[in-house]
């Protein structure tokens, strides 16, 4: 029964191994001659200004909230997609109502300018 | 084989759940929580509920984690992260231990009081878990399903009103 999920398990194992092997090997093989420039968060990048632990704007939070809500909408589409042929027009109307109600929310978000970065 | 797999997953789940509460840096706690969610998703797969597993990964490990991480970023936790709060460890351990014993006792002593329903592991495997959920959702629970969309609509409007400076 679990055999069907073997590819997912293999993918997880490969992902973990890839990360571990890269870090361990580079720390074993690589030379270590640290200098202030090399130890900067972004080498050859912008000079860091202040700490990274600042309070973030609520604008990020709004985007995250909207992402969650539309993500949950997408979850409901999966069972419908599987039953699409069996439910037929009935299911289409049902899902249509669901989508239309949420589309009202989408228009609201758009009209209020919540998707714009001001 | 399956028992061994279950034990490994349980070990990972317990260790990562412990890391959630013991990590000093809240971001590390959040990452450990993702690991716990993935272990829970594996349990759902082992319980013949692949749809629940997918929802667990998508909604919890995906969406809810984004919310938690953004909350951590939103709050200024620099001060709190440096010192460890470890008061009431003894009292908490005692209460936790008795709750555990109590729960174990109830589970050991309890038995199924009602006759088994039509949903068995065999039937779920035959018809497909997602199909069974979908069929119930789109026929028997049609009204609650449509009300869910209104609930989501309210949440969308609420989020915009709360977070938007100028409406």
Overview of the structural elements:
The complex is a heterodimer of chains A (118) and B (167). Chain A is mainly alpha-helical and 118 residues long. Chain A has a domain at 55-118. Chain A is 65% helix and 0% strand. Chain A is built from three helices and no strands. In chain A, helix 2 packs antiparallel against helix 3 (84-111). Chain A is flat, with a radius of gyration of 24 Å. The mean pLDDT of chain A is 85. By secondary structure, chain B is mainly α. Chain B has two domains: 1-84, Four Helix Bundle (Hemerythrin (Met), subunit A), CATH 1.20.120; 120-167, no CATH class. Chain B is 79% helix and 0% strand. Chain B is extended. Chains A and B meet through helix 2 and helix 3 of A and helix 3, helix 7 and helix 8 of B.
What is the helical fraction of chain A, as a range of percent?
55-70%
What is the strand tally of chain A?
A: 0
Head-to-tail CA distance between termini of chain A: 52 Å
CATH top level assignment of the largest domain in chain B: Mainly Alpha
**How many strands, what sense, and barrel or not for the largest sheet of chain B?**
none
Largest interface: A-B, 48 and 48 residues
Computed structural class of chain A: mainly alpha
User: N-to-C terminal Cα separation of chain B, in Å?
Assistant: 58 Å
**What is the tally of helical segments of chain B?**
8
Average predicted local confidence, pLDDT of chain A: 85
Percent of residues in beta strands of chain B = under 5%
Q: Residue ranges of chain B: pLDDT <50 for 5 or more in a row?
A: none
Q: N-to-C SSE series of chain B?
A: HHHHHHHH
Structural class based on helices, strands and sheet pairing of chain B: mainly alpha
Radius of gyration of chain A: 24 Å
């Amino acid at each position: 029964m679990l055999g069907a999920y073997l590819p997912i398990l293999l993918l997880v194992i490969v992902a973990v191994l890839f990360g571990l092997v890269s870090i361990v090997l580079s720390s074993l093989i690589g030379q270590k001659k640290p200098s202030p420039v090399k130890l900067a968060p972004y080498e050859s990048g912008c000079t860091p200004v202040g700490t990274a632990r600042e309070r973030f704007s609520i604008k990020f939070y709004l985007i995250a909230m909207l992402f969650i809500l539309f993500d949950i909408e997408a979850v409901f589409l999966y069972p419908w997609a599987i039953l699409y042929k069996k439910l037929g027009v009935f299911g289409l109307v049902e899902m249509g109502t669901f989508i239309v109600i949420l589309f009202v929310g989408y228009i609201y978000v758009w009209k209020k300018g919540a998707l714009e970065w001001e | 084989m399956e028992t061994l797999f279950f034990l490994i997953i349980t070990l990972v789940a317990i260790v990562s759940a412990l890391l959630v509460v013991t990590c000093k840096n809240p971001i590390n706690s959040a990452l450990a929580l993702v690991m716990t969610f993935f272990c829970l998703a594996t349990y759902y797969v082992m319980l013949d509920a692949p749809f629940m597993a997918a929802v667990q990964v998508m909604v919890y490990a995906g969406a809810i984690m984004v919310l938690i991480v953004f909350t951590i970023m939103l709050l200024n936790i620099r001060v709190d992260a440096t010192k460890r709060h470890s008061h009431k460890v003894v009292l908490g351990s005692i209460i936790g231990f008795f709750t555990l014993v109590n729960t174990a006792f109830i589970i050991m002593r309890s038995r199924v009081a009602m006759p088994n329903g039509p949903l068995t592991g065999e039937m779920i495997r035959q018809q497909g878990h997602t199909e069974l959920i979908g069929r119930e959702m789109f026929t028997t629970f049609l009204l609650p399903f449509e009300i869910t969309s209104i609930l989501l609509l309210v949440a969308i409007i609420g989020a915009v009103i709360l977070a938007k400076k100028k409406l």
